[in-house]
Amino acid sequence: MTSAFCSGCLTQLRQTPRAILPPPSTAVPRTAAFHTSAPLQKVVQKAKASGYEGPRYRVGANVKIKKKGRPQEKSRPPPPGERKALRKRIVLSNPNALEVEGMQELNGETMVDSRLRGSVLALPVPMIDQLRAVQAFKTSQGWSIFRRPGTVSRRETLEMGRLFDQISNESAGDRSSLKRIITGQRKAGKSVHLLQAMAMGFTKEWIVVSVPDARDLVVGTTSYAPLSEAQPNLYVQNAATAELLSRTATANKKVLSNLLVSQEHAALPTVKPGMTLEDLAKFGIQDQANAWPVFQALWAELTATSATPGLEKHFTPRPPTLVTVDAVGYWMQNTAYHSIKHEPIHAHDFVFVRHFLDLLKPGKGKSALPNGGALLYATSSSNNPSIYAFDVALKQAAARHAGVNPSSSEFPLPEPYSKPDTRVLEALNSPKPTVSKEGMLNVQELGGLTKEEARGFLEYFARSGLLRETISDEWASEKWTLAGGGVVGELEKLGRRLRVAA
Amino acid sequence: MPPRLNLFAARSAVPVVRQPTSASAAQRYAALSRPCQRSSVQSVQRRWTSSDKSTKELAEEQRKAESMPHVSEEAAEINNIMNKEKRCDGTPSSPELEQGTPVSEILSRDKEAQKHAPKVFQNQMKKPSGSRSFSTSARNQLEENKGPMSDAENAALIETMIGQITEETQELMPGLKYPAPASIPKTEHLRRRYSPVIEQFTKNIMRDGKLAKAQKDMSIILDILRSAPPPKINPKRPLLPGPAAPQLPLNPVAYLTLIVDSVAPLIKLLHARGIAGGGQATQIPLALAEKQRRRAAIGWIIDSSAKRKDAKFAHRVANELIAVAEGRSGVWEKRDGVHKLGIAARVNIGAQSQKKKAMSMAY
Amino acid sequence: MQSVRSATYLRAALAQRSAAPSYLAAGPTMSLKQQTPRRYATEATPALTAAPEIDFDRMLQQRSARVVPASPSYFTGSPRFFDHLLNLESLLAKYAALPTVSANDSPRMAWLKLPAFRDLVGERIPSKKYRGLLKVLNRLNRIDPAIRPQEVRLALKEFLRPGNPYAAQSTTTSVDELGRARGKGKRKESSAVVSLVEGDGEVLVNGKSLVEAFPRVHDRESATWALRFSNRLDKYNVWATVRGGGTTGQAEAIALALGRALMVHEPALKPILRKAGVITVDPRRVERKKPGRVKARKAPTWVKR
Prior knowledge:
The complex is a heterotrimer.
Chain A: H1 7-12, H2 37-40, H3 82-88, E1 120-122, H4 125-133, E2 150-152, H5 155-169, E3 177-184, H6 190-203, E4 207-211, E5 225-226, E6 235-236, H7 238-251, H8 253-256, H9 277-286, H10 291-302, E7 321-325, E8 334-338, E9 344-346, H11 351-358, E10 373-378, H12 388-401, H13 422-427, E11 442-446, H14 451-463, H15 473-482, H16 488-496
Parallel strand pairs in A: 3-10, 3-11, 4-7, 7-10
Antiparallel strand pairs in A: 1-2, 5-6, 8-9
Helix pairs in contact in A: 4-7, 5-6, 7-9, 9-10, 14-15, 14-16
Chain B: H1 7-10, H2 23-32, H3 39-50, H4 55-66, H5 71-87, H6 95-98, H7 103-109, H8 111-116, H9 119-126, H10 135-146, H11 151-171, H12 196-205, H13 211-227, H14 252-263, E1 267-273, E2 281-287, H15 290-305, H16 313-325, H17 331-344, H18 351-362
Antiparallel strand pairs in B: 1-2
Helix pairs in contact in B: 12-13, 12-15, 13-14, 13-16, 14-16, 15-16
Chain C: H1 2-19, H2 56-62, H3 79-95, H4 114-121, H5 127-141, H6 150-157, E1 181-187, E2 190-198, E3 203-205, E4 208-209, H7 210-213, H8 217-223, H9 225-229, E5 236-243, H10 247-265, H11 270-275
Parallel strand pairs in C: 3-5
Antiparallel strand pairs in C: 1-2, 2-5, 3-4
């Protein structure tokens, strides 16, 4: 392997950005190429130790007598990693809670059954491992007090279930696709909506590709490197890509092990036609340096509608694909990474991010998801960067979907002097697709539950033995109001709230 | 048969808490462990308010609910719900409420469900004439006995309901638009909304006046109490009579109350100087009021939780509470120590007043 | 012998005083005939009329060897106060048998505050003694207003503050033409105005939803307490405007305002709203900082020398 940079480039190097050096030319870099911490370190100026600074405001110049407090016991801090493990731990079961009799599981029938609206559907036990693999559960969600994880079947869920059902029932090769950005206020259930989508995807044996937290890719915690000599302004995150492959391979093991490589992959000489896609993904997991090419190969396989000539015997029709990204707002700004000139790198310059954002646009010639499927990207409302351009872009996407002409006066435009990030506006500028079956980008806002749904949800608490109240319409309606109009996360807080012993 | 649930009947699964042994404890914990009682009535009430249809329509509806809906009907229903929602008018039907089936009925025909049914249900099915009579089973049988009602009965029932409602509205006092709550529990006061122990515990874990943080910690503690395994009670250090140990986690407030009350000391020792003479302090035992006793216990629990290794304060305290319940905590020794000293010093009880008397007589 | 005479004298003096207290030149009078406007001791009082010349012969005849003051309370140190008190007590003794109403149903009276009363009598009355007087006044006020004697009525009127503070109703007592009831409330540094209409449970605080306005569940509960505990949260819509202070103060200011607005819609709820603590004003405010102190009360560290 040759050096990624010529000597001319090297002369441009300045002193500080040591972390941006190209990969060493000797061997295949097996470990993370470099890290960001060095340029981030700032020289902290110590406050000067000065003498008397004059009297402080309204404090007498009196002698301070230190009180002898209680002797502080010095207990050792917990071992490294324990606190983080505790923070990240996800508990999905509370053996003390009662088993809810007659609770239905999520399956092909119940996910479209509108009579179950407002009731809580349990997640099937085998699927929980898959959902764990794609990191669908978050610590902030209250799984830990129920006997088994379950989600409430609300209007949006049923609607999504019907769409998934519809896409699955279409003939292979002619499936439609769905593109949505899910927004909504804090605790409105956006992440759980994605979880429900993933659960439905697993039920229908789709391939689920998930980015559980978009933030991880942009805050400077993963290694990164320029993509290639030819494209020094594009960056690749191999470790993060390998993790993505690992998540995808583990969760979709059953589906991927039945699909065979049926395309030519010139960049990967080790990949032989006829091996399973699971093995293909494992290449990228084991050899992180190759993670990105492997992911590209995997994606090419998943979106293939026919085999390369000569490899037809390996080809089977590919199932639909579900792509979910949570907290997508983090991808709409400069990252914490720095370029060779020590300028911040925009998130869209990372091939990983770019790949997923490009899917939102209509595909050239063929659909972005030729085998059908769904793209569900959710925004986050807690610990979220506030990006004006993204807000405008979401409004524009909604207007475009509603059929508003971009040249008309009703089309939302940014404020004249606001200097919005044009790349963000461009990324979500998704015109009506030319391929008939491809869905157009839409923005779905999740609101609160209706009062009936809220009542069903709270009854689930009561039936789990956690809520010792008589559930009446009035009572449920009161909680609905206290939850700001049925915001599901707030309802959950109210459901587990304990004021008095019942 | 479409899946039918009755959410109201299922509420009977809330565990029936064992009757406390002593009378006073029974009185105290009766309020803590009271299962919901009016739940079976609620389903009926719900219909009163929402039904303004004629009885014939209702009967028709019931007939539909009994039989499996036709495919096209179902599709129409789905369509109806989805479209209606989008237009934001009309309320969607909530089928599980209108097509209720008692859980026991489901269990009786579903062998698989029987296997996974809660133990209470299983026992009940095995030996219906058991020695223990659960209040829930009685209610269930009542519902079963009713059976399906005829149309005429149904109509009569609705007639009486409508009559009652009209009566109710007429009976309203002048100056009321809706019926006023009949009685207000003590905890329905704005400033006394939490149960006394919760309130006291929260205020005691508050530091620097940060009440919101203390409340958050308190809710974490209660969540840990309800998700931790039930305490294995040490027979040497039993808790006060109350709900049985396996039932405690489902009522964390009662659990916490029981723990705090169990280790609360009965007395404190007053160090009175100048009675014995020579600058020596005399220990005088003083009886404590309930609130003082709890305060002492909470203080001990928080103090001894500081030695734990858990990273978070709330986890430390919760684990200490569980340790107290299982008799492993050092708080028990503290209490025993105080009691022992108190017993030893009981001769001093009258000392102070005697001294005063002697002084007053001297002058 | 002496005691008997003094007793008879007292009786006579009482009768005389009830007719017209001569020593109180500008004092309140209880007779119907002489209705003079009330005056305070600080005003210039006309000179007391001199006592008539002493006729020693007559005195010797009556065997009254010394000068007797007009008021029996003359030697108490605060004779005017005790005259008032004795008068009221005699009234009470006279009408003790009359039927009474409960304290809540009796007309609300704004009695003179202690400084004003001191001004009126011109004596330094301790507050405890004045409280005793107020007790008698309140007891007299409990006599059924329908059959209350004119005498009592007039006696009570003496002690009323000028003007009637309770007559002024600052809050509106009826809903407006759009069905809105308005209530105001304050707590800590916050002040809230609530408009309450019949509805289906929408609550907006400063145009934001309840969740956005109050992230804490505790505060949300506080703000809607009046509707919450009376099971009316799904029967009214609330529009609240609140300014100043922190979240707790704002929430509890709304609670008070909402309680008052609800009383406009349903006046009969007042007793249970009182029990729920939502119309009881919490008058506590932050205590001001004082000069020479670090905070309101904290003293600077004391150092010897």
